[in-house]
Fold this protein.
Amino acid sequence: MAQSPAPRVDVLLKRDLEALEDDRLALYASRAARATRRHPIPEGDEDYRTAFQRDRDRIVHSKAFRRLKHKTQVFIPFEGDHYRTRLTHTLEVTQIARTVARALRLNEDLAESCALAHDLGHTPFGHSGEKVLNRILTGQEPSLDLSPQAVARVGAFKHNYQSVRVVDLLEKRYDHPGLNLTDETREGVLKHTTWKRGFPFPDLDAEGLHLSSGCHLEGQAVGWADEIAQQAHDLEDGLALVEREKVEGIPVAALVIERLGATYRHAADPSVKRALLVRGLIHHLVTDLILASRAAIERWLTARKVATPDEFRAQRKRLPGSLVAPSREGERLYLGLKEFIYREIIHSHAVARHDGRAQLVVTGLFGAFARNPRLLPDDVLRRYRDLTGIPYLREVSLKKLDAEVERHYRNDPRFLRCIADHLAGMTDSYALAEYDALFAPYPRRPAGTPTV
């Protein structure tokens, strides 16, 4: 009896994956085969990843990504085991972005890489830390006596620009600076939230970012996934601060409850009831986003007679930034939810204390480092040496130290930016430990410090 042939198992290589993209993606989706990056990567026979999959892997293996687990979203993680961190928020944004991308036949891998990297430049203490750092760098913090010359040239701070700075310059894993991500991922990271072409941010390599155009559609999907995840999950984290009747009165919540009907009304377990509501909010907003975006994309393609991927690519320099967006009604419901969260949760006493902590710690650390650069870690001082060509501060004699600081540090905007990079990269716990070490009369021994 003849034996049947052994089953064949095919391995998908990069070229196969790119061919599959051409078969399944919509004409308005980004193609990995056309991705560009600043430093070419040698082609190999054993290549099982597209360009965007490679971006995803580089992001996940970066130090900046790992630090997200110890950075605040809204509530301080060590005050409760189940509060979102910047990392869990990132994963939730990624999940929603992939759902939207798949439904619209966009490139899921690009949406994933943009979502995973979108908050890599975020400060400790959430948006509060971001606001404090921007206020310092723009000379609006009266408690700090910074050099007016340096402040005038250092530029501002915003976390999406800092995220691009992290992946372009600050991460060190290769012979060149940064992670060498594709321009498409870099653009999605920058444009996941508000951005301006002329924003005063230093060393931003604009090549490949299409600053005169809206983002590719995968990046637009990430922007709205970020908004939906943030509002729905900030609400869930802050439910203990708000009366249930108030939450159920939010217009979008009322719609969800009406749709759930008896399932919601008869849910006896409060945890299940909360989950039903939050899950319903996300489902409602995501569904509206997908359906409204499909209609908007169809109208735009028809109006411009775009029928092929090449014709869509030719429109890239003047792409609207609102093709992936909710309907008017969906946006109204979203804004109602956002306004409620800001009024009842973000401005609550519990969160206001976190804002105060961010002001105290970030301002205190920045001032201490600016006054006495010796307090900075060795790697920050070495980076500043490499940027400026001046002697490494640890090798300057104590007799010449004050003159060296006055001459090469106080008036140089690159020094202030190095401090900002160092502070923005800190986790909440590291920032608090540094503040404690510098300002507490008897500082507590940080966790993990070896005993003598």
Summary: The radius of gyration is 24 Å. The chain has 21 helices and no strands.
